[in-house]
Amino acid sequence: MLKSLVAVGAVLSLLTGPTWETSGAPTGETIKATFAAVNGSGCPAGTVAVVAYPDNTGIILSYSSFYVQRGGDSSAIQGYQNCNLDIRMSVPSGFTFAVSRAVYQGYAFVLPGATARLVAKYNFQGQPATTSSYTINTTSPYDDNWAIVDEFSFANLSWAPCGQDIILTDAFELRVQPYGPGNSPTDVSFVTANKSDHSIRTELNFAWKECK
Predict the structure, then answer these.
(1) List of E strands, 31-73
(2) Which of 4, 93, 175, 194 is 20 to 30 A from residue 64's alpha carbon, by CA?
């Protein structure tokens, strides 16, 4: 059973977009997303992928090597991983977009008293970052797939600059805090890939406007 944690309007950026009317996703030309830079312990070369939806409504980021654990005989450094992505976005001429919704998915095994946390940030190059922080396990023990949905209010959307090369930066980190010193190698809490598709995923959905 997929458990969902919903956070609405968890936006730290106070930027507001231009005042023109929103439009549907542009058709006739498909957006393209490629990596300009990939850095971090959670995404060694070749372990993260980006795919754009063919209807231009968003992109999916898939991480195949993210794994954090604490407890037992694991070290503190094993309890934290991160990934920083610079994504070059090619969008249809005359349009701009904003991230309106983010969905994060994975799998967690958390022992009583332990905590698994996620921190996600995104921004367009030159703009302040929008930051969201969550506790993955609302209960403990926890042994299940998880999904976190973050929807951003329209007034707080940050819009990509019109007519410029667009770099969307996505920063993602996972951390597990143990309940105390572990005496057994089996006393381990961890966060890893979703059991259904074998990856940790971030889905970013877009809102669109015409540039005027």
Answers:
(1) 32-39, 48-52, 58-63, 68-71
(2) 4
